[in-house]
Amino acid sequence: MTITVFTLGQQLSALLREAAQLDASVADASLLWELPKEASFGDLSNALPFRLASQRRQPPQRIAEQLSEALLARCRQQPWGGLIDRVEAKGGYLNVFLSQSALAQVVEAVLAQQQAFGTLPADPSCSINIEFVSANPTGPLSVAHGRQAAVGDALARLLRSQGLRVTTEYYLNDEGRQVELLGRSLRARYAQAIGATEAFPEDGYHGLYLIESAAALRQAHGEGLLQRPLDWFMQTAMEEQLGGIKHDLERFGLRFDRWTSQHWLNTSGKIEAALKTLEQRGALFEAEGALWFASTKYGDDKDRVVRKRDGELTYLAPDVAYHQWKFEQGYDRVLNLWGPDHHGYIPRMQAAVAALGLSAERFAVRIIQLVTLSRHGTPVPMSKRQGEFVTFREILDEVGVDATRFFYLMRTMESHLDFDLDLAKSQSQENPVYYVQYAHARICSILAKAPPSAAADLLRLSEPDTQGLIRMLLQYPTVLRLCADALEPQGITVYLRKLAEAFHIFYTKHRVITEDEPLSAARLALVRATRQVLANGLALLGVSAPERM
After folding, report:
1. What is the mean pLDDT of residues 205-221?
2. I need a labelling partner for 436 at 20 to 30 A (CA). Which of 280, 330, 339, 424 fits?
3. d(CA 74, CA 95)
């Protein structure tokens, strides 16, 4: 096996086990190397001395000093020992510093692998289904739905880059009370448009979009549509809203692999099949004339009705069938990205998955928190009930796809997001997406003036700021792996901002094209590698990498 700077961690862990004289009972997790938060702490860091302190009754720093010498001695005996410059003990941590030849290897790897840098080979045996957005087709997508779209799509791109087989899915609730209310609301708006009298439903949809739809119906069909059944208004309204949703998502660069209809689910026999499975597993019982799911057996706080006394199914029944069907497709894992209004629904779905006989590790739900908008430092009102809410489409119109995507991803999905519209539109270094894209465009401008490529002696890249930039490139594969493991793409935005900052510092202090041709060749190789990683990371977010700005 060829040891490279990117596969060094596993080898260092094995040598550290030897140096610390640990037996096989010590978990490998204790030997993992992490990325230090500060450059002064080296390229790889390990906290094993803290774990050994109480057992050996010594301060962590003393243990670290002993282990640093023993580890470095063992590294020197390896064929790849030249990749290590030194090992330091600092504050109880073991910090490994890579050699200049190791850093040169980083630049070479980026340039050789290009778009594949940081990715892992496809593993057909590892698959995941990610369901997200899934907004009812009763109106335009909201700002919160837009955040779900950004997070879900970026996560899917990230996981694909790490070798997983990913299916993105939109669950379409295309029947039931909400669709009926939509149809009644459109019918009432149409009646108003032609001067007829029809009561607006108490819980109807007040948005301007239905007033516009009603006016369009009058213009296209005249004033005789009130003779049509309610189902016609329901279907017409739903198809129009669904068309708008799909249009906005495609404009956003998001195309779902699969759209699954609840109506199809209800007519497919899968709901009865799922209830039969629960019955066979002793998870259903009858009481008070209704059919109940004994979800408390599986960790829920109370049992749930799946079929009411009148025979009508509750929302839970199709949801159980939907998840059973997804697992029947052979996915290793199923992930749902939901809004905070569904938080209380998680335990009953976890109970349903367990009752179906499926492993809890195969099913996960993550909550994507809400978004507030601000303009000129003032919150933007978003009252959906009054029909005055800001839509996802309006954000795209005002800010654009790139800034919208990047801003949606700047906070972890379970953190509240304040979306500053003014900042997102500004062309300044304070705007994070502009800052990152400008770094890419600046590099493209440099390369456009560069002489023909020449063989580069990358060992010439010895200045601290230059090596700091290389060290940021080194971190990219690890950042992707950590983000994928955490199912959280937000870390990519943090990384790209740091990479852009490292480049801007390098560029400010060092001319790339100089009279020293060998040095120019080395620096041009570095900026090419930086441009590649910036483009790769932006692509995972669905953000463009412009050549001019």
Report:
1. 94
2. 339
3. 15
Q: Following DSSP, what letter does each residue of 148-169 receive, concatenated? A: HHHHHHHHHHHHHHTT-EEEEE
Position 187 in a domain: yes
Last residue of a domain, one of 197, 223, 251: 251
Tokens 């953190």 label which residue?
415
Classify residue 485: in a domain, yes or no: yes
pLDDT digits (tens, 9 = 90+) for 516-532: 999 999 999 999 999 99
Round to whole Å and give the CA distance between 159 and 173: 27
| 359 membership: H or E segment, kind and range | none
Q: Does the global pTM surpass 0.90?
A: yes
Note down the domain range covering 482: 428-541
Indicate the residue type of 353.
V
Which residues face 291 on adjacent strands? 286, 307
Alpha helices in 93-176 (DSSP H): 100-113, 143-161
User: Which position has the token pair 């119906």?
Assistant: 217
CATH number, residue 16: 3.30.1360.70
CA distance 251 to 209: 19
pLDDT, tens digit (0-9, with 9 covering 90-100), for 237-281: 999 999 999 999 999 999 999 999 999 999 999 999 999 999 999
